[in-house]
From TrEMBL:
Domain CBM6 stretches: 833-956
InterPro entries per record: BXL, CBM6, Cellulose-bd_IV, Fn3-like, Galactose-bd-like_sf, GH, Glyco_hydro_3_C, Glyco_hydro_3_C_sf
SUPFAM superfamilies xrefs: (Trans)glycosidases, Beta-D-glucan exohydrolase, C-terminal domain, Galactose-binding domain-like
Family: Belongs to the glycosyl hydrolase 3 family.
Signal peptide (from-to): none
Gene Ontology MF terms: hydrolase activity
Keyword rRNA-binding applies: no
Name of the protein described by the UniProt record: Glycoside hydrolase family 3 protein
PROSITE patterns: CBM6
Database matches in CDD domains: beta-trefoil_FSCN_BglX-like, CBM6_xylanase-like
Keywords, alphabetical: Hydrolase, Signal
Gene3D superfamilies: 2.60.120.380, Galactose-binding domain-like, Glycoside hydrolase family 3 C-terminal domain, Glycoside hydrolase, family 3, N-terminal domain, Immunoglobulins
Length: 962
């Protein structure tokens, strides 16, 4: 070989595909296998360095020390500002590069962000990680953030953004065991588009598979990895597993009998990098080796995965001179630099949503006294994917810095208590020094001196019966860290960590005493002989009985401060690591009880009350909406939140945020959390027919904006055409505002159930007082398409569409109509043809299931009398017989009855007997003669028993005419 041929993979002039091929040709099989794990070893003889996938960067560089903390992703979604979100992505990408320059072993360049799972249900524990409940807005935000992370160089990547989590992932509790039922329409119209947009744009270069199953098949084994997402771009896409998910396929999911078989299936399905067993790559190596030895995969399968891996590594500049890569020069000086701090404040400001503002209470006009109240008023929280806060500009600090200590008073509204041994005179005490010590029972002299800090605790109510305790003695929270039975120690700044060990539940024992249950260990708090406390008891009977004696009412203290103030600012919300986080879904939409009492009492004391909600998700705040004159919401806003809030409250800027998801009046408005069929369940703003507390897209400003002169460039539109929608917006108020002009459409008639309204475009425009702007938004006919189950493709249907422009999904200011010259969907002619069961139109009592472990969807009955229907089936002159491919895992036979027009009273066309097949994957063919039924009819399949599966129906043609 010539020198150039010998080092083609190091030659930047050689096409990328050829460089990868050259490098692969130089690797041994053993070296290749080792590179499939998350922790990829160095291959010194070839100059290949170590590489690790997975630096967390959801809204800032996370887990690696202090870095700029921007608002949570749902807060970035609330900005509706693509340029801002892109700039935040740029800043985070710079900080990742900067730390990588300083410490490449700690900070890898494959970043696991953004999350483009949609906020389908506000009870999802990871609600804070997504951008919106809408596919267009989510996809646009994900593209903008990814574009910032990757940089704008035509060759090199700043970082390699990884979209999370593919696919149908919106629940946490038992997430690796639950299956998301995705019908073809929900899949193609709702779930896939937010992933497609950043990949098709070239902004995202990698994808992480999700923990859940989809239609009973682990998402890590989804055929859609290769059949869908890799078809959206000509670039190589890296697919990484989520942590421990490859092992789940055998262990918690029991989908494959052994790890070698599962590993082979994962590679063939398109998983390239195994995030499994932490840094113990030898386990993955052994599994891949076993799969090769058993002939389940070939070296070519390994090479395919490595092509995807190395495509990213090459584009990150690993095999090129540093001077050729403009991102290689970024240093750690950029981390939390002043420019990023200013950007963090801009983002926090733009993420604040004004939900209500009666009687013009906001902005505040030179208040003489402001009471800043509530448990979130003087603290900022980090979530699981936050960076470490470099500083905390809290609500109290932001207002104090602007107005001065003499104007701002503060109370956190938290009860202070003494924990006394039931029936005794001993109380629980805590050490005063900063590092804390084991909590102990100390004897008092009759009545314990309640003024002693050592015997007092602040009791934080986080809702759903979950509390945390902060020792007054040193201001630190109580934890029970380490192994089971660890002592209770007051040494934590607050609830923290993957396993939160700082939360407790209170329960009443049969004898009337209260007991503390440590949530993380599932043990009750008991006292040892020497009086120290630990989470050691298995039952309430073994636990330390307590009585809780109030020292100071947090509500009363807040009320007193509110009475003395011109205005009360009450800051409420959630702790991102409690009652709704990764691995734990919310159970309702309620505020914690103590917080609800606080806002009611403060408002009664001072009607000029502003409620500031700081939360990872929506709340059902019907009482507050009815009574409190002004309400603001922000996601946890990062290090600059308090400064941004002060600017909004004091009128420096008008609120500019808009809700990225519906706020419901009650959780009764929501379907089951595991019901992913938004169409059938009328879920999200797209299909919800009730009255929301606050609609998708809602957000007020300090001015009134009028919408005038809506125009559509053409009254008709071809299926491959485009029109422009133009509207004038005028600021008739006295404040400069940023208005989010939102374009929605509704199809007036259709073969299928379609959204009540759907976002088709938006623009954020700034308007000076009295100013106006003309906003033009494109509307493509292709964007109006839906998935037609009769043809298995997206279809633009011939129909009239209402075009709606306004300030939210329900605040429509102007409308027009456009006639779309699309297709007329014909009835399904079935004579002599087959029909996939998964392509039904409606259903009851069934689940979508995996036809095989590799590919295909089928229908399985989960209750007697379950049915599916195919609307508008053209039976022609009738059919001779009906056949089906069926399976029955149960020991007894089942039946499938075919009726027309009605599942109970309709004419029986055929009855199919389904014999026991021993497995849900053991398919067999059955058939039966058909009764005389002709013409276009709605066809129902009714299952008599659970466990029966059907994959396909076949209709034999009619007999000879008489």
């Amino acid at each position: 070989m010539s020198d150039s041929e010998a080092s083609a993979y190091t030659n930047g002039a050689v096409p990328l595909a050829d460089r990868i091929t050259d490098l692969l040709s130089r690797l041994t099989l053993e070296e290749k296998i080792a590179l499939l794990h998350q922790h990829q070893p160095a291959i010194d003889r070839l100059g290949v360095g170590t590489f690790r996938t997975g630096t967390e960067a959801l809204h800032g560089l996370a887990w690696l020390g202090e870095a700029t903390v921007f608002p949570q992703a749902v807060g970035l979604g609330a900005t509706w500002d693509l340029d801002l979100v892109r700039r935040v992505g740029e800043a985070v990408g710079d900080e990742v590069r900067g730390l990588h320059h300083k410490d490449p072993e700690r900070a890898g360049l494959n970043v696991w962000a953004p999350v483009v799972n949609q906020l389908r249900d506000p009870r999802w524990g990871r609600n804070e990680e997504g951008y919106a409940e809408d596919p267009l807005l989510t996809g646009a935000m994900g593209t903008a953030y990814s574009r910032g992370l990757r940089g704008d160089h035509p060759v090199f990547l700043k970082t390699a953004p990884t979209l999370k989590h593919f696919l149908g992932y919106n629940n946490e509790t038992r997430r690796d065991r639950t299956s998301s039922n995705l019908s073809p329409r929900v899949l193609h119209e709702y779930e896939l588009p937010p992933f497609r947009a950043p990949i098709a744009d070239g902004a995202a270069v990698a994808v992480m598979a999700s923990y859940n199953l989809v239609n009973n098949r682990p998402a890590h084994l989804s055929p859609l990895i290769n059949e869908a997402l890799r078809t959206w771009t000509t670039d190589e896409i890296l697919v990484v597993s989520d942590a421990q998910a490859p092992s789940n396929v055998v262990e918690s999911q029991a989908y494959y009998p052994d790890h070698a078989a599962a590993t082979a299936a994962l590679l063939k399905a398109g998983v390239d990098s195994f995030t499994d067993n932490d840094a113990k790559s030898e386990i993955t190596i052994a599994r891949v080796t076993g799969a090769l030895e058993r002939g389940l995969i070939t070296e070519a399968d390994v090479d395919t995965a490595l092509r995807h891996i190395f495509a990213i590594r090459f584009r990150l500049g690993e095999f090129d001179p540093a001077e050729a890569n403009p991102f290689a020069a970024i240093t750690a000086d950029v981390i939390n630099c002043s420019e990023h701090q200013r950007l963090a404040r801009e983002a926090a400001r733009a993420a604040i949503v004004l939900l209500k503002n009666d009687a013009g209470l906001l902005p505040l006009a030179a208040p003489r006294k402001v009471a800043v109240l509530g448990p979130l008023s003087d603290v900022l929280f980090e979530d699981w994917y936050s960076g470490t806060l470099p500083y905390q500009a809290t609500a109290r600090r932001g207002l104090t810095d602007r107005l001065g200590d003499a104007v701002v008073s503060h109370e956190d509204g938290v009860d202070r208590v003494v924990l006394r041994e039931a029936g005794g005179d001993r109380v629980v005490t805590a050490a005063e020094h900063a590092d804390g010590a084991a909590l102990r029972l100390a004897a008092g002299q009759g009545e314990f001196d309640l003024a002693s800090d050592q015997g007092q605790f602040d009791l934080f109510d986080w809702g759903n019966g979950v509390y945390s305790l902060r020792a007054v003695a040193n201001g630190r929270h109580v934890t029970a860290a380490g192994t089971e039975g660890a002592p209770l120690v007051n040494n934590q700044p607050g609830p923290n960590g993957w396993v939160v060990r700082e939360t407790f539940r209170l329960a009443e024992r049969a004898d009337g005493a209260l007991v503390l249950k440590h949530v993380a260990s599932d043990r009750y708090v008991a006292a040892t002989e020497d009086g120290s406390l630990g989470a050691t008891a298995r039952t309430p009977a073994e636990a330390l009985g307590l009585s809780i004696e109030p020292v100071r009412s947090g509500v009363d203290a807040a009320v007193a401060a509110a009475r003395e103030a011109d205005v009360a600012i009450v800051v409420l919300g959630n702790h991102p690591l409690i009652n709704g986080r990764e691995c734990e879904d919310r159970v309702d939409l309620d505020l914690p009880p103590t917080q609800q009492r606080l806002i009611e009492a403060v408002h009664a004391a001072n009607p000029s009350t502003v409620l500031v909600l700081t939360s990872s998700y929506p709340y059902a705040i019907g009482w507050a909406d009815e009574h409190v004159p002004a309400i603001l919401w922000s996601a946890h806003g990062g290090q600059e939140f308090g400064n941004a809030l002060a600017e909004v409250l004091l009128g420096d800027v008008s609120p500019a945020g808009r809700l990225p998801q519906t706020w419901y009046a009650d959780d009764a408005d929501l379907p089951d959390l595991l019901d992913y069929d938004i169409i059938a369940s009328d879920a999200t703003y797209l299909y919800f027919r009730g009255t929301p507390l606050y609609p998708f897209g809602h957000g007020l400003t300090y001015s009134r904006v009028e919408y005038r002169d809506l125009r559509v460039s053409s009254p008709a539109l071809d299926a491959d055409g485009e029109v422009t929608v133009t509207v004038e917006v005028v600021n008739t108020g006295a404040y400069e505002v940023a208005e989010v002009v939102q374009l929605y459409t509704r199809q007036q008639r259709s073969r299928v159930k379609l959204p009540v309204r759907q976002l088709r475009g938006f623009a954020k425009v700034r308007l000076a007082p009295g100013g106006s702007a003309t906003v033009t938004l494109p509307l493509r006919a292709a964007d109006l398409a839906f998935w037609d189950v009769t043809q298995g493709r997206m279809v633009v249907e011939e129909a009239r569409h209402t075009v709606m422009v306004g300030a939210s999904a329900t605040d429509v200011r102007a409308t027009a109509v456009v006639d779309v010259r699309g297709e007329q969907i014909a009835p399904r002619a079935v004579s002599g043809r087959s029909l996939r069961a998964a392509d039904h139109d409606d259903y009851c009592g069934i689940a979508l299931v995996d036809e095989s472990t590799v590919a295909g969807d089928a229908v399985g009955a989960i209750e007697p009398g379950a049915w599916i229907t195919f609307d508008g089936v053209d039976l022609g002159r009738g059919v001779r017989a009906v056949g089906a491919r069926v399976a029955q895992a149960a020991d007894s036979a089942g039946t499938i009855t075919l009726r027309v027009d009605d599942p109970v009273r309709g004419q029986v066309v055929a009855t199919l007997t389904v014999p026991p097949t021993g497995s849900g994957y053991a398919w067999t063919e059955v058939s039966a003669p058909a009764a005389d039924a002709t013409g276009v009819r709605d066809l129902y399949l009714i299952f008599d028993a659970p466990g029966t599966r059907v994959a396909e129906l076949r209709f034999d043609g009619p007999g000879a005419e008489a």
